Amino acid sequence: MIRLAMVMVAAALFLVPAAAQAGGWATVGLSSLPDGMDAGEPWVVDLRVLQHGRTPMNDVQPRVLLTGPDGTRQAFAARPTGEPGMYRARVVFPAAGRWRFAVDDGFTQTHTYAPVRIGGEPAAAPAGGDSGSGANWLPALAVVFGAALLFAYVGLLSRVSRRAPRAAR
């Protein structure tokens, strides 16, 4: 049992530094969604980039990434607005159809959003701020898992140390 606990703690010690080395994560909130726009119409969108979902990130270079119905890809750089953590992009969908889009936060990951219909009826779109499906939860999960293993190990050690040694017969 002790050997198993030691293996689990060793695994946790490898996971926690990996999460810390990742440097954290960021969320991206959008001021609007492009669903239902016409092809060629500019979609001017503000991106709020927050480290750990709280601290506005300056000095990153976010981009809006498009993948068209035929698989073509385009990227549109977002520029700082002067407000901390706020960037603005001017995006143009060149043709009608079902488009996929994502935001590269310029920090650690790309946030994907539900596909949108350009030049037709709007598809159902998620409401609210960051609807990205990025893996923001992975570093936090690694830390929680590591902490749980550490507490289990400490609890096991305290149980073992409380047992009185058996008297020799």
Short description:
The chain has 169 residues and is an alpha+beta fold. It contains 2 helices and 10 strands. It is elongated, with a radius of gyration of 24 Å.
CATH architecture of the largest domain: Sandwich
> Which blocks of ≥5 consecutive residues have pLDDT under 50?
17-21, 122-137
Q: Helix coverage percent of residues? A: 25-40%
Number of DSSP strand runs? 10
**CATH topology description of the largest domain:** Immunoglobulin-like
- Indicate the CATH class of the largest domain: Mainly Beta
Number of helical regions: 2
| Overall structural domain count | 2
N-end to C-end Cα span: 26 Å
Average of pLDDT: 78
Radius of gyration of CA atoms, rounded to a whole number: 24 Å
Taken as a percent bin, the fraction of beta residues is 25-35%
**Series of secondary-structure elements, N-terminal to C-terminal:** HEEEEEEEEEEH
CATH superfamily of the largest domain: Immunoglobulins
Shape: elongated
Category from helices, strands and their pairing: alpha+beta
Assembly state:
single chain
- Tell me the major beta sheet: 5 strands, antiparallel
